[in-house]
Amino acid sequence: MKQELATKLVRSGEITRRDFAAKTASSLLGVGLLGQSLTSKSFAAFEGSSKLKQAATAKNVIYLYMSGGQSHMDTWDPKEGVETAGPTKPIKTSADGVRISEYLPLTAQQMHHGTVINSLSSTQGAHEQGNYMMHTSYEMRGTIRHPAMGAWLNVFQGGGNSTLPNFVFVGNDSRHPGAGFFPAAQAPLFVSNPENGLKNIKNGSPEEKFQARMKLADELDKDFRTTFPHRNVKAYADMYDDAIAMMKSEDLKAFDLSEEPGELRAAYGKEAFGQGCLLARRLVERGVRFVEVSLGGWDTHNANFVAVPDRCETLDKGLATLISDLHNRGLLEETLVVVTSEFGRTPDINQNAGRDHYPKAFSGVMFGGGVKGGFTYGKTDKEGREVVENKVKIMDFNASIAYALGLPLDQVIYSPSKRPFTIADKGQPLTGIFA
Fold first, then answer.
1. 114 CB contacts (<8 Å, ≥6 apart)?
2. In this predicted model, what pLDDT tens digit does every residue of 21-53 receive, in sequence order?
3. 3-class SS at 6?
4. Helices 149-157 and 394-404 meet at what angle, rounded to 10?
5. CA 230/CA 237 separation, integer angstroms
6. pTM: predicted TM-score of the whole model, two decimal places
7. Which residues contact 21 (CB under 8 A, 6 or more apart)?
8. Could you give the CA distance from residue 431 to residue 371 in angstroms, rounded to a whole number?
9. By three-state DSSP, how is residue 282 classified?
10. DSSP assignment, residue 253?
């Protein structure tokens, strides 16, 4: 409908496509796209943003977030023959030249599908700030809340299922930035326990009685909506509409993991993370575009070499099975699976046999979605202290995700407070990691 209207208006000469997009964003989102009539000063604020764009290699994203600061030394960038390595040993993988930690043996068999980025570097060394930057590309500010990637995807492209939310978060991390300055409709649906599905979602009243109640509620709210035509009021009403659509959706069964074979569920792992990975696969199958699954417990200041193998066992089952499952179903090519954390951990081992916060150098991994298989990008020195090849800022990492989705990296959107923002700040996509 929107596309047909835009085409008619452009052909009639009444409005340009860019103006149509700006007006649509302004009216529906409560934000504005940067228009051509603005001054050069407005453009200069983001003149460093990448103008690169490609036909999307990924349709969906499954974003696996390792909350707490995952040790790169004991997962994706293990060393050998140096004191900083500790007891962790690297092992060979299914990809020549790619070695990862011995704690990830199942994932090692899937590395021919993925790219390891061993040169991430952040400016944020505290959990909340690092988490925020990794999700938004921006430093935390007290005056504004920036959107996470799933919200940007919602705004730019929308979803593939009209009755399910396009953005879902699975886990218990309350620090997620959500929709940021976008309306609440762009926020993720939070699912704390994947095995419980969505509680109290079904309508227990007869349909006729339910419709009568909704009609009455609409009439009672009408005067208020007319008197206060603000975006938050509209967003609240839209949430009711979306909730009703979801209540009636045939695709709600995506949240019912009991439909899956017991053997496959066991392969993903019994923990909430593994079952969350399974839920993510079921959701992208039904058109949900962005699913994040969180795995905490990586804050290993103490007993790092006890905690990390335990965390890796959970990650290894969920991640390796997810990659294999997506591949077997023909979904991996269109689904970008991302594994990342807010920062790494120190190469030096502290007096408590732990590793401390280390944003200077750490790792992230991407599978499927158009990235090269069996590839390593970037490099740290022999002790894992310094990035010595292809340093990747957080904004560059996020720009690469947006690039895979075919999103415009230089498109400026104004927040309700009239401040300009782009999806990944001035991040430059890592074009070399794509096949």
1. 95, 323, 337, 365, 366, 367, 368, 371, 373, 374, 375
2. 444 455 445 566 654 334 444 455 567 889 888
3. helix
4. 30
5. 11
6. 0.85
7. 6, 33
8. 9
9. helix
10. G
